[in-house]
Amino acid sequence: MLKVKDVHVYYGAIHALKGVSFSIEKGELVTLLGANGAGKTTTLKTLSGLLRPRSGRIELEGASLNDADPHVIVQRGVGHAPEGRKIFPRFTVLENLYIGGYTRAKISLGPEIERVFELFPRLKERQKQVAGTLSGGEQQMLAIGRALMVRPKLLLLDEPSMGLAPKIVEQILETIASINKSGVTVLLVEQNAAMALAISHRGYVLETGQVILEGKASELAGNDLVRQAYLGG
Question: What is this structure's pTM?
Answer without folding.
Answer: 0.93
